[in-house]
What does this fold into?
Amino acid sequence: MKPSVLILVPNYTPSVKSGGPALCMFNLVQVLGDKIDFRIITSDRDFGDDKPLKGVRPGTWTRLGNAQVLYLSPRGIRPLPMFRILASETADYLYLNSFFSRGFSMLPILVRAAGAHAQKRIILAPSGEFSPGALALKPRRKRLYIGLAKRLPQFREVTWHATTELEAQDIRREFGLSAKVQVALPFTQASMTLHTREGSARTKTPGSLRIIFLSRISPKKNLLEAIRILRCISGQIVFNIYGNVEDTAYWHECEVEIRNLPANVSVEFRSMADSAFRVFSEHHIFLFPTLGENYGNVVFEALSAGCLPLISDCTPWRGLEGHGAGWDLPLGQPQLFRAALEKCVTMTNEQFQIASARARTYLNQFVSQRDPVAANLAMFRPCP
It folds into this structure.
């Protein structure tokens, strides 16, 4: 018999504003749907929206790809409706795709404590929420809930899903060395199409540089620092920003810094990209001084397009410079980011094409050494 999995996730396709997690969850279902019976409960609206997604029927189970999906309105994400769902939906596993989501992790854990035990086991994917950079944002509320969680017996049942060994270390730091952790890479869109893609024909002129930032506009992603890094860069710089504004006050801070940039730096905000691969293929450098990523789907996308990542050392993508595939540098040392950018400004087209090819080679080697299918299947063994 196929194992059955009930997934609770804050956003799911056709959501586009929630970034990598929703897409990776969709890819997981598409890849493993013939081996696992998936049922998904999610919000009926996109991240930050107050209206339902187009074509979605809230409160009705709908077949979407390899899963049955139930989209809930805000009224459905309340204690009593959630209790009824989790008490009636039998499954081998309850899979929670967040630790701090109030409606899709905190609430389900609490209603499970109240007696909703129709699912036999819990798998919880914190999705980078335990990285030091993430925990530094609104730390008081997060520390209070972590303290409460350690006292709840439900968390003694949890199997933690880490996407990398680095995230596994973060989980054990918070919940102890005895925490049961399984490591399995996510299914990024780039990983599913990597071997069918061809490199871009973009060229590179010495003295100019096309830089991209692609992520949600929030303090954790650290766009503000990316803008400040560009203050003293020579040459003709094009800096394109792609992403949804998650934090309006933070975006206003970014706008102030953009207005203070020198005339040689041209900045344009372009909202969401319809194809990450396409826009990365139009740029030379991916500037991303993030405060922390459990995996970094967007780094994978950049590498797959041969766009050189210039990122913080707070992601699992380490040692890039040693492979000639980019840079991962410590936060708090903006001079190192600037030195790397100045080096890129002076690159000839031949030098850039060599580096771009090395980035793709590095990624192909990375993928060939891991088997995400086997690792993800191992999390969902049939329960007795």
Observations:
- The CA atoms of residues 44 and 56 lie 7 Å apart.
